[in-house]
Amino acid sequence: MKKLFLPFLVLISLLYACDDDENNTPVINLGDAYIINYGSYGSADGSVSAYYESGDSIVNNVFENVNSNALGGNIQYASIFSDDIYFMSNSTDEVAYVDATTLDRTNNGISESITKPRFCVANDTCLFVSCWGGDVWNDFSISYIAVIDIETKSLIKTISVEGGPEGLALANDKLYCALNYEAKITVIDLKDDYSQSSIDLPAVSSYILKDSNDNLYVTLISSYYATVTKTGIGYINTSTDVLEASYELNNVSTNYSSILSANSDLSTIYILAGSYDANYNYTGAIYTFNTESNEFNSTPILSDISGLNGVCVNPDNDYLYVLISESTTAAGKLKIYDTDMNLVSTKTTGIAPAWTIFK
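The structure corresponding to this sequence follows.
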């Protein structure tokens, strides 16, 4: 059975509450999660919501509560490495970071050579950030990977990667980059002076999951910029860097959010699929892929969800955290389902919830 190891990011739970001291200092409590809200496009209203399992409650704008100012920018992605949470602030061109325990932001973000950051992964010493570099849809050559020293929070170098890198994964001393505008995965050898190769795909990709053998599942999505023969997911052997199989699912989501997740025993992948109507309203469903039988279920576990934007799995209990954004200017929703797909809770989030962070 191919078992998934949640990479990047990806699905880690950070647990938040407040002491009774006069400074109201945040501390970690087992069982809670952070919801990362993208905000309205082009506005500086990205935010963080904290969900508490105990009491089934949610607190919005927790970053502002701690720091007395807004997070700023549209938050494309966020994840925890070492002792910090890193936020990819797409509209303000920086990688912001805060203390993972207190949410306290004591330093300015990393902005040197950071233009339109999208996603990040890290090893013991370096944070790798995919950057579009500007209007990459007009010029595929301007995109790159920024390599940041985790200890000093300083830029080490940039690596040109054409085609708009998005989701990333680390395996076998190589960095794998899903590309938004070319039907391939770029592979960067971290032990060979960052030399590059590529793996051809039947479609453009966006995000990646890693299994227990360091092999990869990649999304296969539609695109105006590359020929697409099949949407669904692909499976890459990282020892040979060969696409060994692809599994078809129509209309896999092209949203830039948590469209791909897995349960705690890494036997089931959850993936979003859906479509837009004539007024650009998105309606989606959540499908499951069995990593033992290598098959999608014929019917979705949840369907006809207006504004479906993301799905993440709580690793403590396998509950699904479903993120809904029916408007780009109004608050979104968090819906939590148990393992039998019974609705446990519905909460109001910030604008355009896109990711859930667990630890």
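The helical segments are 62-67.
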